[in-house]
Amino acid sequence: MTLSRKSHVLGLMALTALTLLASCAVGPNFKKPAPPDVKGYTAAPLSTTAGTTNIAGGNSQRFAEGLDIPGEWWNLFHSKPLNALIERSLTNNPDLKAAQAALTVARENVLAQKGAFYPTIAGSFSAARQKTSDQVSPTPNSGALYFDLYTPQVSVSYVPDVFGLNRRTVESLRAQAEQARFALVATHITLSANVAAAAIQEASLRGQIAAAHQLLAVNTNMLRILRNQMAKGYVSRLEVAAQESQLAQVLATLPPLRKQLAQQRDLMAALSGGFPSQGLAEEFELASLQLPQELPLSLPSQLVAQRPDVRQAEENLHAASAQIGIAVANRLPSFMLTADVGTMALEAGNMFANGAGFWTLAGNVTQPIFQGGALLHKQRAAKAAYIQAAEQYRSAVLTAFQNVADTLNALEQDANALQAAAAAKDAASVTLDLARQQWQSGYASYLALLNAEQTYQQAVINLVQAQANRYADTAALFQALGGGWWNRADIPGTSKGITHG
Asked: CA–CA separation, 346 vs 252, rounded Å?
């Protein structure tokens, strides 16, 4: 190697060493937000909910603070059809598969950007037939005007990440990949909760339809008795017309309930990745579900790590922080190192002969000077976007705590409502029996009996709805606390528990 060539190589190596030693990542380093300093979810202390005996879903429920949430929380309802439907949904639902693909896209983008940390190497080969002008000096040493030229060449370029532009870009993309992961988690939790809610609603509708059919039988029998009595002159046409109206009202409640039931089954078919025409093997009744008696209640400091929407907001904040560094780095000098090595020969057989080689080493520095203020305003926009993301994160945290508090309050009031509904139904049943006996004995008017029937009908419907509310809000609590996704192996990145990015 000649002295000149050595000096060029040493100079390039020195430049590379200096740029690497001086490299730093400009912009703020992201710090994970601290969990909110609160002791609980509700203003009043929680207590065991009220219980109602001899009623499906009437068990009292106790809140166990700090108890972990199982990944398959729906098993706590002890319903094999519900377990099968949710697991099938988690396998076949297209929204979940789309979220999985979105996560793959985001992770591949991170890996693609990491390629900028390494030199790029490209090989090329050209072969040409040329003629030079006889008015100027000929190109080949031989002086020939016509000649062939063969040029194999390798080019290497490298952009040192002096101010951390690429590192911040990778950091931002990695945060976006984590956003995609928690979007997948959110889709997973929402899907399982929606299937459970649809199954509970189906069970509620079946209970209401069954109650309506019982009332329909009672009112049909009553109408038959009244018509016989009217034929004998014991009752007037007015009383028969009133019973006919009552029967018509009961009949009118059935089509809306059947419509809702059909729509719930269509929804469950779609959630499980099937078509409504294919039908569902599973059917749900309130009596087939068991109400979990011990409910896990995560500590407030754990909630922000468990809720996927909060974790998405956190990663959005992280990406916004990295974007500030990107905007700052774009205003600073950028460096590029290039090297070319190859050979050039007039004959293919001489491409690798002594003396045919050539090489080039070069360094380049570019400093933005004037771009109409674009880079400055982009940096200011990045800082404003970070403030926006910070407030969105705070909003997500507040919403998470509100969801849990709302569900806890709902569970407490659901228990009280079921207790009251059961008492009202029992009282209405007694009233109806007494009114029927008094009417048959001639001590009460038919209108009194009719009023007792209407009261009993509404009490039965209210009881079924109160039962369903307890099941539905119990499932909602599991969703509000994060759904136990960290205990499932089929969600990426959860094999070692909750990750913190």
From this structure: 97
Cα 229 off chain centre by: 64
Between CA 84 and CA 90 the distance in angstroms is 10
What whole-number distance in Å separates Cα of residue 467 and Cα of residue 425? 13
Which among 113, 106, 185, 173 has a CA at the least distance from the CA of 319? 173
For 388-391, which contacts have Cβ atoms below 8 Å and span 24 or more sequence positions? 388/320, 389/313, 389/316, 389/317, 389/319, 389/320, 390/317, 390/320
The residue count of the chain comes to: 501
450-476: average pLDDT: 91
Question: Which two tokens mark 171?
Answer: 């950091």
Q: CA–CA separation, 433 vs 449, rounded Å?
A: 9
Kind and range of the H or E run holding 343: strand 334-343
CA dist 76 and 292 (Å) reads 6
What tens digit of pLDDT does each residue of 86-123 get?
999 999 999 999 999 999 999 999 999 999 999 999 99
Residues 185, 190, 191, 196: is their CA dihedral positive or negative?
A: positive
